[in-house]
Amino acid sequence: MKIDSFKDFKYISNIDQNENFVVYHITTVNMKENIYEKNIYLYDKKLKKQIQLTNSGKDGYFTFFKDGSIVFSSSRNVDSKKKEKLPKELEEIIYGDSKKEEKEIKSRLYKINPNGGEAVEFLKSEHSIGKFYELNDNKIIYTNNISAEKLDYQDITKLPFWFNGAGYIYGNKTDLHILDENGNDKKINSDEIEISDFVLNKNKTYAVVIYSNNTDVMELTNYIGILDLSTLKIKEISKGKVHYYADFIKDGIISIATDMKKTGLNEDAKVFYFDIDGKNEKQISSDNIDIAFFNSVGTDARQGEGNAVQIVDDKMYYISTYFDNAVLSSIDLDGNIEEVISRNGSVEGFTYDGNDFYFTAMRDLQLPELYKLENNQEIKLTDFSKDLEAVNLSKIEEFNFENDGNKFVGYVIKPVGYEKGKKYPGILQIHGGPKTAYSTVLHHEMQFLANQGYFVFYTNPRGSSGRGDDFSDIRGKYGTIDFDDLMKFTDEVLEKYSDIDQLRLAVMGGSYGGFMTNWIIGHTDRFKVANSQRSISNWTSFYGVSDIGYCFVDDQTQANPLDNLEKVWEQSPLKYAKNVKTPTLFIHASEDYRCPLEQGVQMYASLKMNNVDTKLVIFEGENHDLSRTGKPQARLKRLYEIQKWFEKYLK
Questions:
Q1: pTM for the predicted model, two decimal places
Q2: Are 157 and 44 found together in one domain?
């Protein structure tokens, strides 16, 4: 695997189907233009072949309409340049009446016949159209994603005031609208609420809406409401929980939600059912079964995923993380759970119409592929992974180990061209989250490092997803039981793989993995070199600066810096920075508002003042997701810096 191999791959995501076709996105990397290009493809069920449907490279959300056509949003022919704009009062002072308000077209929807033909413009809008459904009479119902105007100053009166991937969010809002073919547009919800998601019923008469109050401090819980499309009124039917998903089922509503009372923000959700008027709410899933809904399996070899929940025949089908894999299951209204797809790896998205079951998945050391499920067998329909034939891959080996009464799986990737009896450096990788999971899926970064002559090893310590609330709950325990698990794992790896040079070890990780890297170098000198990315170093400043700090610090440290500063500081890696002797590379993005830049800067400055060899690389314009969805050239530069830093100390 080369440093830039990710640019040569095709990434499938977002699948849907009708009786004749499966439709999906293919994302490719344009390294020279430093962009990702996304087009719509079809799989013809009868001809059993893939067909490229669009080629603008700018095609987004799509859906089938009742006439069999595919309607999609696209940024082709849309002016995406941000324009400086002052408040209207100041514009009048500067320009007087000479400046006329011009309506900017922000969204265009196109319609295309999957049987052939060119895409034609269907609707256009001055609003930013997100998710949409077809209504009757050539109307659509859609989310309008309002973005704050770009100014040379910021008025801040709310919390959070910025958000990772969005920047300053004062003035950002998502509303629900109806638009007809003549351009007549009507906003549905009031200014007091903000829309998170919505689903239309089959008869197109009602929609179930997840929304929150538009408050000065963002609330942690949200609401479910029913929108009557005849009156355009939203009636509240559930509150007091955080709802991740809601849809119509049978004569009522099904929801994935949690009240967070057991294990806080990272608590596994439960399944609830209630009448359409909000009465007779009952929990369907058992308290004895923890389900980690959605896909928490990490990788840098995907670009988007897909539909994770769907209602079919009074059952809810869903993707969840089970131990180290993302699997697909179903639950009925009596709480009976059935496995549908449970192979090792990661189910990325699926579509099921009651007859045909299609899904995308990562299997073995392959890219995401399209599959059909027939008689409980996975039939692979695409072969994007043929591009991997041009690179060298090292298989992932597994072993079991125990620590403190818990069982774990350890993963090891040997260097490409490994020779038994020869000594090699080793790298411990730590995932983010902490409630995510490593699996057996392809990682470009790990395989690249293996091609550079390193053993790469990783596991899922306590705090990880897929093993229930008791396992994932490390609130107030950061740097203790998880540290013990990682050190025990490292001991086990070194015992089982004697060709790893114990004097040439590296540790690296991002986000929570960056926190643990910072923590580890302050508590042990066993690693010769370290790489800390998008990290947390100081919970006390994280509290006021991170987009989630105001709620995450209280929850995860079980303390508030305003009330118990010492407890928060005890759990901060920065407190132990004076102990660090390990040369450390810090990588951070200037627009990372999840783990803000100041977190990496504080650790860097502390090591610098203590004469520890260190380097800080800041990526301008990038955010917390740099390693996975950052601009291609930035991703390349990031790997180059890691490669050179490790070579300096391990080769």
A1: 0.95
A2: no
